[in-house]
Amino acid sequence: MKVQRSFQKGDDHRGDLYLVPTPIGNLEDMTFRGVRILSEVSLILSEDTRHTIHLLNHYEINNRLESFHDHSSKAEADHYIRHLLDGKDIALVSDAGMPLINDPGHPLVVEALEVGIHVISLPGANAALTALISSGLPIHQFAYYGFFPKNKQKKKEILQKINVMNGVAIFYESPYRIRQAVEAVYNFLSPETSIVIARELTKRYEEYIRGSASQVMDYLKQNSIKGECVLMIQTQAQELHSLEEFSDQGIQHKVQQLIKDENIKPNKAIAQVAKHLDRSRKEIYNIYHQLRETD
Ligand code: SAM
Prior knowledge:
By secondary structure, this protein is an alpha/beta fold. The protein is 42% helix and 17% strand. The chain is built from twelve helices and ten strands. Bound molecules: S-adenosylmethionine.
């Protein structure tokens, strides 16, 4: 066990590793403290120096800047740890928002903590939380999952996973894939699931699209969107029926329900369930008939 008293140093002559958030669009969103720390440290490590120099110029910060990202080698990380052990402070920034939140830096933080360096994070800009608090969704409980998966099976898995809590699931997503992401919510959760897309936060074309999966899907069919997006999905534990649909019994129940409620033939009901669950008709057919045999 270790206790970090960030601002009580005693005889400790080590430097500190500061994690400094930077704006997610609007350059005014730096804090006074963030600007001061970036000016005072002996070295700034940045995901992309060409990007960070723009911010430093804006705030007239003339400080040493070096590149550090996910592909930086262990030797490079060790080099910066020695720098900290020599008593020099380092600030780590990413291109936008909080470092480490879907951005580089975690291995450096772990290594720094291992050798007793104080790791001090500053509050500041972050796309997920900025989007969440103005979403209008019930935010008493939320979970952040990073980028929405690209792969169909992974989409299904993550949506199954999130749908056991009552709250909001937050994802980052590219504008090119946002429509497919909403489609997955429509298919694997329900068309009524509440969704909010927050786009281009803090920038000129900031926009929120709030509605059910079905409404948002219709909107996205007619309007292509650009820029950076945060996708928020309201999850409801009582929607557990969607999860149950994935069990063999749930599938049998769903097929029988459709036959009865919509007065359709078993094969048509099987086709509908297969589409809804993104599985093959044959698979659903086998599950349905196998289960019926054991009735
Ligand atoms: N570290 C960042 C943070 O704290 O939010 C996230 C970095 S991640 C590599 C970049 C993703 O964050 C984008 O693809 C987008 O999904 C989201 N994002 C960043 N800036 C945004 C903005 N201004 N509006 C909406 N989403 C944004």
